[in-house]
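User: Can you predict the 3D structure for this chain?
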Amino acid sequence: MGSLQSALAPYLAVISLVLVVVVVGLLAWCFSLSKKLKNVHRVWDQLSTGAEGGNLEQLLHTQLRRSGGLEAEVEALKERMTGAESKLKSAKRYVGLTRYNAFNDVGGEQSFALAVYDEEGNGAVITSQVGRMDCRVFGKSLVKGKSETSLTVEEQAAIESAVRPTSRPRITS
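Assistant: Here is the predicted structure, written as structure tokens:
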């Protein structure tokens, strides 16, 4: 042990200086960590007390409850939307109108053929022929775009008018 002391004796001042520098460095590091810890405590206190004095845990539970309620509401809306879309397919929403003169002695294109049908082509064609002394009205059903009875040129034109992309908005899934 005596030989170790005698060997380190000339370097004692350097060793002491190194130890002092290390201790000062450790103290500075502890001071920095203490400052960071105070900041963390301050932020945690703000979070735990909340903006309006509420507890962070209570706020999180409230948000989770609201989120669950919103998910249920979104699912209910999806179901309603699916039902509305299926009903919309059978809605008579495509309309075509052709006006014409049914008889040579009557002008003004007062006669007409009106086609009304749904997404699947089911509906009706209503034709009104106006003459000088009378008015005749005919109705023909459409199933998948076809009629059991023959269609006049004007009735076919009314169906074509309803089929045109400009008058028939498309609904995509």
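Helices lie at 2-8, 12-49, 56-89, 153-163. The CA atoms of residues 33 and 47 lie 21 Å apart.
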